[in-house]
Amino acid sequence: MHKIALLGAGGKMGFRLARNLRGTPYAVSHVEVSAEGRARLERELGIRCVPREQALADADFLVLAVPDARIGTVLRECVAELRPGTLVVILDAAAPWAGELPQRPDIGYFVTHPCHPPLFRQEASEAAQRDFFGGEAAAQAIVCALAQGPEEVYARGEELARCMFRPVSRAHRVAVEHMAILEPALSETVGATLVTALREATEEAIRRGVPRAAAMDFMLGHLSIELAILFEVFPGRFSDGALLAIETAKRTIFREGWLERVFAPEAVKESVVEICRAQQGAPS
């Protein structure tokens, strides 16, 4: 049975992983610095935490469920304690792509992140339909990257990732650079920002007198069909009037060349560095 040291086990993501890793072919040693996190693990999962040194002593995997800004610091504190061949699993590309991982050539670095359940899906149960985050009842895809280590350890990392984020529909192998493009550039810099703008626009319509329920139904219904068309889930097309409105609005809402600026390699690197710095002192 492979042994895992799970650091940050009582945090938001760490708790999810601790729960999902129960009943898998892994023996997990849980490490959590906060009293609240330790109490929750024991209260809800019956898990007792151990000191970090004990968890690392015989670990085959080190899983870092800690904030991006803490990954470099935590690894520098404990990397000398890792056995040769240990696979360090990091849950986001920010710290690796920002150059925060300490040099040690006899260990592996594996990066993985959930895609979350897809927008258009029909689940067999209400619990799965309401599982928007994933890792509970709804299947989701994951992305994985081998940042350092021999090729043969990739399969070990993906196998563990499938257990951590289960149920998993499929795993995409990408480069660490691709993961940084996916997040933060695609999913947060663009996706979360535009979604925020959609909500702000809906609130503006409400402020201008449209009844809230009508505005919500109208926006969410139109988004459903518009996204289905654009992402080729539904074989339709926009009306001529909608196409004209899109082209006109683009000139008002977006600055020319915004895609090139957002996805330029130097912009992606700057974004992950800022994320790491901004999260200094954030709880796990």
Identify the CATH architecture of the largest domain.
3-Layer(aba) Sandwich
Helix content: 40-55%
CA radius of gyration is 21 Å
CATH level-four homologous superfamily name of the largest domain: NAD(P)-binding Rossmann-like Domain
List the uncertain runs: none
**How many distinct helices?**
12
* Biggest sheet features: 7 strands, mixed
Portion in strands: 5-15%
At the first level of CATH, the class of the largest domain is Alpha Beta
Please give the number of β-strands.
7
| Span of the ends, CA to CA | 27 Å
The secondary-structure class comes to alpha/beta
The domain tally reads: 2
Q: Quick check: average pLDDT?
A: 95
**Helix-strand sequence:** EHEHHEHEHEHEHEHHHHH
The shape, in one word, is: globular
Provide structural commentary:
Helix content is 50%, strand content 15%. By secondary structure, the chain is an alpha/beta fold. Helix 7 links the parallel strand 6 (140-148) and strand 7 (168-173). Helix 8 (176-207) crosses helix 12.
What is the topological layout?
Layout: E1 2-7, H1 12-20, E2 26-31, H2 35-45, H3 52-57, E3 61-64, H4 68-78, E4 87-90, H5 94-97, E5 108-114, H6 126-129, E6 140-148, H7 153-164, E7 168-173, H8 176-207, H9 212-230, H10 240-253, H11 258-263, H12 265-278
Parallel strand pairs: 1-2, 1-3, 3-4, 4-5, 6-7
Antiparallel strand pairs: 5-6
Helix pairs in contact: 8-9, 8-12
In short:
By secondary structure, the chain is of the alpha/beta class.
Entry keywords:
284 residues; 12 helices; globular
